[in-house]
């Protein structure tokens, strides 16, 4: 039995609008959430055109010319804008009937390269029972016929399996949100033997160690420790009368263990260091979870991943910014303070889910609006941009 994708009706409208554009084909990403029983697609986003394509309206007619690197880069950028619980669930192609045979091969290649690129950046390991099927959606621009198949991305030899694609109204209008603020104080020593103070690599290693601490933490949901297999909404069933998009928030506290390892003895190593990196501040974390009897462990896992992703993504963004503004060969390693970008949230129409992004202090609202149009094909009003954090170093 194949997987079933429940899809927000607005996604169907979006794909239908894209198919009327006269290009021989359009590619893009599917965004949503996996669960053991079913998967949910709440957004589809077309691949942004490259500069040269904007000027030249005649686009290549062969699918062999699909720019894999451009699509995987887009997927990496988009994944930074997804709060906990959301991920790139698959890839779509809308193509003319002549290209339908080629489409399936192109989709298969794209699904594996997108997943490879996203996995490389993650600091967490997938759980054993995790869903590893990703959707390949093919739409004929002439007949509007929709064919959905899945590939198991854990198996490079995986062949296509048929999947159901079902539209639903107000699919994510009352998803649940878990919110927490995590105080971060990470000290990363820079070894004297480390070549050229490779800050980015050292930071990633330090974040790797810290992410294991987050994985081992205890999460209090609304002040209680709950059993992982319990239903998240137990005891909260009375709130069901509401049909308008509304978010039910749970407040979460994260308790990290002071000492790691179960054995009382620990071995210490002495290493010669030439400096250190300190990451300090309070970060806002958020995860969304479907409202079809979600388990506590699903919600906690989504929030853990958001905590880990939000910090590693910000460090990545900061290093990219430093390279652009200061060049990769900066040798001055006196004491320096850099402010990591702040997190902001933007609503999705007709949904209780918000998308996320990051802004530096000197970044204008217009730049954020441009990024949402380019990356997520979504226009955002300035008053809908909610900055979630105080400015801190």
UniProtKB/TrEMBL annotation:
Keywords: Membrane, Transmembrane, Transmembrane helix
Keyword Lyase tagged: no
Listed GO biological process terms: intracellular protein localization
UniProt cross-references to InterPro entries, sorted A to Z: ODR-4-like
Major subcellular location class: membrane
Cellular component GO terms, alphabetical: endomembrane system; membrane
Localisation: Membrane
Family assignment from sequence similarity: Belongs to the ODR-4 family.
Function: May play a role in the trafficking of a subset of G-protein coupled receptors.
The protein, known as: Protein odr-4 homolog
Organism: Ceuthmochares aereus
């Amino acid at each position: 039995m194949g997987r079933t994708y429940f899809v927000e009706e607005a996604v169907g409208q979006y794909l239908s609008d894209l198919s009327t554009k006269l290009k021989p084909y359009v590619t893009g990403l599917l965004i949503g959430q996996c669960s053991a029983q079913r998967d949910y697609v709440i957004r589809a986003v077309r691949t942004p055109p490259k500069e040269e394509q904007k000027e030249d309206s005649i686009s290549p007619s062969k699918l062999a010319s699909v720019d894999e690197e451009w699509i995987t880069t887009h997927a990496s950028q988009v994944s930074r804008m997804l709060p906990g619980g959301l991920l790139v669930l698959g890839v779509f192609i809308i193509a003319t009937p002549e290209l339908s045979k080629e489409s399936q091969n192109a989709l298969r290649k794209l699904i594996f390269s997108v997943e490879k690129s996203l996995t490389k950046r993650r600091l967490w390991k997938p759980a054993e029972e995790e869903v590893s099927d990703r959707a390949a959606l093919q739409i004929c621009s002439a007949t509007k016929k929709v064919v959905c198949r899945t590939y198991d991305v854990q198996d490079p030899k995986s062949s296509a399996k048929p999947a159901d694609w079902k539209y639903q109204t107000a699919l994510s209008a009352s998803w649940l949100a878990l919110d927490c603020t995590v105080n971060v104080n990470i000290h990363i020593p820079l070894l004297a033997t480390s070549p050229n103070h490779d800050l980015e690599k050292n930071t990633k290693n330090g974040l790797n160690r810290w992410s294991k601490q987050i994985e081992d933490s205890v999460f209090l949901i609304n002040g209680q420790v709950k059993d992982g297999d319990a239903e998240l909404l137990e005891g909260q069933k009375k709130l069901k009368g509401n049909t308008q998009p509304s978010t039910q928030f749970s407040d979460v506290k994260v308790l990290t263990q002071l000492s790691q390892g179960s054995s009382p003895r620990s071995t210490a190593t002495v290493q010669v260091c030439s400096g250190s990196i300190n990451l300090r501040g309070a970060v806002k974390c958020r995860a969304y979870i479907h409202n079809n009897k979600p388990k506590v462990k699903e919600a906690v896992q989504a929030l853990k991943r958001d905590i880990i992703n939000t910090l590693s993504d910000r460090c990545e963004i900061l290093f990219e910014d430093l390279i652009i503004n200061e060049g990769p060969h900066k040798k001055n390693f006196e004491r320096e303070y850099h402010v990591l970008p702040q997190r902001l949230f933007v609503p999705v129409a007709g949904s209780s889910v918000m998308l996320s992004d990051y802004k530096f202090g000197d970044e204008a609202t217009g730049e954020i609006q441009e990024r949402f149009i380019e990356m997520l094909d979504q226009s955002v009003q300035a008053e809908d941009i909610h900055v979630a954090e105080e400015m801190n170093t």
